[in-house]
Amino acid sequence: MSQATIHTNGAPVSDGSALERKLRSLWRRQRWHAHGRGLAAVTLTLAALIVGGLLIDWLIFLPPVPRVLLLLGMIAAVGAVAYRQWWVLLRPYDPRRAALQVERHHRQLGSALIAYVQLGPQPDGSQALAAAARQQAVQLAERLSFVELVSFRDLRSLVLGALVAVAVVAGVGVQWPVALATFGERLVNPLSERAYPTRTQVALLEQDRHVPRGAPVTLGAAVAGVVPVEGALELRYLDDEGEATGDWERLPLTVDDEGRLHHRLTSADRSFAYRFRAGDGRSEQAQVTVVAPPRVRRVAVTLNHPEYTGLDEQVSESLNIRAPEGSDAELRLELDRPVTKAELLELGGDGEPTDEPLALDLADGGRTATLALPVRTMNYRLRWTRATNTTGSVETFVFDDPVRHQMQAVPDAAPQVQLLQPVSRNQVGTMSKTVPLVFRASDDHKLTEAWVVYRREGSDEVHQVHIDELEQKTVERNFNWSLGETVEDLAVGDRIQYTIEVQDNRVHDDGRQRSRAEPWRSIEILSVEAFLQHMAERQVESFEQLQRVREETNDWRDDVRRLQREAP
Fold first, then answer.
1. Are strands 405-410 and 321-324 parallel, antiparallel or unpaired?
2. Under the phi-then-psi rule, with left for phi > 0, alpha for psi from -120 to 50, and beta for the rest, what region is 83?
């Protein structure tokens, strides 16, 4: 396009379009400089991050969360460089800014160029003065080059560094293409467990699994490729939520003749993650989850006693149960974790179950187990079954409680009775004789009644004389037994054998339990004359016996006096 001119006082004046093109050209050159600088800086940063991230992940084998942080850090770093070294330099075209840059570089322009830009093609004020100022700026700028204001030479080191970085990444891609692809997959997909290629390959023999607490666990891996002599097992324990509780523990191992690494844990008591190493190879990480047996947090055993005991309902916190025969027990157990089955196993003398287990009822999502059963004498233990969801399949684990418990049904003991008086086993009396009896009786729960039982000597027929209702556990009673009033057809010459009989509170199929005092006493019925003669004979015998005692006492006294006189 031809440049139009105007005349002021007869002198031709340029319209300045060439100057404006030079200013726009300067702006475009600055933008290309910014593009080159930004692209080189971003390329260098991205390449360094790729190589550095690859080395870190290859050496440490980052878990998912750190890989997410690494990706976010790389994005943030590249974004920061792109913003500071690229985006902020891409300014829109501003003729004033461009004019000022030219004037700072070419001092001889003074302020002519900025005046040209500010006055514009149709300035306010004097048109002639403005045209002269613009003409002067055009004439001064025609001989100057604006290109030298923007030099691409300062980008050479940055571009060279970017090219070197690209070459390094390309070299890594050529030398280790699988490693670079693996890093890319692990970076984009943090859940990926893809491993880096190595000269030694280590593959687990088993993947994630669940085992009951205390069970032995065998860990193994197959080693291929360049097989070294030694390897290692790395363990890290986990909490109940599957989170690591410490650092990796390293256990040196020897590769066997079949190219395998093995280690046996005799008892697994905590969940753990593990992996094997051999040479430059490392296996994937697997996890052994230890399924803990449930723990009984609270025990409530409710005992309902039979009526004969007179006992109220009792609640115990012990699984060792002792209750009167005929009682019922209701067990309620609260567990610290859910179960799918709970059983009570009756044990024999060898400690093994003797019969089909009794199933407990489950509630509260398997955390509460209850069972009602009659109390009987036995040893027993509890068995728990837990279920876990392992890779989509349900696996069950059975735990036998190591603690033995006892249940004892205490038989109802027969009442005890003792005849305290008369002491003599043989007495005599007349038909009007009243025998003063004193007896003591007891029972483990409650006595109900007492009788005098008697029979004639030589006869098996037993008769009863009711004494009283007792309604206590222990009693001591007096009872005056009148023979003439209670013994039918009593006659002189009869010999009556008698004792005390008591009864407890429990009703059996054949009645209540009764006990009799031993030994039986006997009394011979005499006529009044024979009784008086017997008593006189007893009086004489007593007198003679007393006289003998007196004589013996006198002899002892004389001996004592004699010995006292003879003593020095």
1. parallel
2. alpha
Output the pLDDT for position 2: 36
Which residues does 276 contact at the CB level (< 8 Å), separation at least 6?
202, 204, 219, 221, 231, 232, 233, 234, 253, 261, 282, 283
Q: For the packed helices 17-60 and 64-85, what is the interaxial angle rounded to 10 degrees?
A: 160
DSSP code of residue 10:
T
H/E element, 58: helix 17-60
Q: Are 336 and 399 in contact (CB under 8 A)?
A: no
User: How far apart are alpha carbons 560 and 568 in whole angstroms?
Assistant: 14
pTM: 0.58
Nearest in space to 252 (alpha carbons), one of 234, 238, 268, 275: 234
The pLDDT assigned to 236 comes to 94
Which distant-in-sequence residues (6+ apart) come within 8 Å of 386 by Cβ?
Answer: 291, 293, 294, 337, 338, 339, 340, 396, 397, 399
What are the beta bridge partners of residue 343?
359, 383
What are the backbone dihedrals phi and psi of residue 122, each rounded to the nearest 5 degrees, phi first? Answer: -135, 75
The predicted structure's pLDDT at residue 99: 67
Q: Residue holding tokens 């319209």?
A: 15
Distance, in Å, from the CA atom of 187 to the CA atom of 181, rounded to the nearest integer, reads: 10
| Distance from C-alpha of 237 to C-alpha of 289, rounded to nearest angstrom | 10
What's the angle, vertex CA 270, arms to CA 340 and CA 279, rounded to 5?
130
The residue ranges of DSSP E strands in 229-327, in sequence order, are 230-237, 249-254, 260-265, 272-278, 281-282, 286-291, 296-304, 314-316, 321-324
Q: What is the DSSP letter of 353?
A: B
Degrees, nearest 5: CA angle 115-120-126? 80
Return the axis-axis angle of helices 95-105 and 112-119, rounded to nearest 10°: 170
Residue 39, classified by CB atoms within 10 Å of its CB into exposed (0-12), middle (13-18) or buried (19+), is: middle
Residues of the chain with pLDDT under 50: 1-15, 122-123, 125
Tell me the torsion sign for CA atoms 265, 270, 272, 277.
negative
